[in-house]
Amino acid sequence: MTTPDRKGLDIEATLNDLYASEINASISWIWDGGFHVTLGDPQQAEGWAFRTIGEAVAWLRDQACARYPDSEFAQKYGGFV
């Protein structure tokens, strides 16, 4: 896992670290509908829509830390929440 930059969100690193921690998530989009994001089991996941990919990934980061506090991901990113 890479070290996060406290000055900004590294989208690629955040998504790679979610994957490495085996945390299920998905991102989809419609050109005029924003970015739709889910975290957890797709059949039970609650989804949210965001205007930008940065907002979507920040939500994933924050929710993953809250829902999986014992994960390696939360240990790394918990200080950003």
What would your notes on this structure say?
With 81 residues, the protein is α+β, with helices and mostly antiparallel strands. It has one domain (11-74). The chain has 3 helices and 3 strands. The chain has helices at residues 11-20, 53-67, 72-77; strands spanning 25-30, 34-39, 47-50. The protein has a 3-stranded antiparallel beta sheet, covered by helices on one side. Strand 1 and strand 2 (34-39) form a beta hairpin. Helix 1 runs parallel beside helix 2 (53-67). The protein is globular. The relative contact order is 0.21.
Give the structure's gist in a few sentences:
The protein has three helices and three strands. By secondary structure, the chain is an alpha+beta fold. It has one domain.
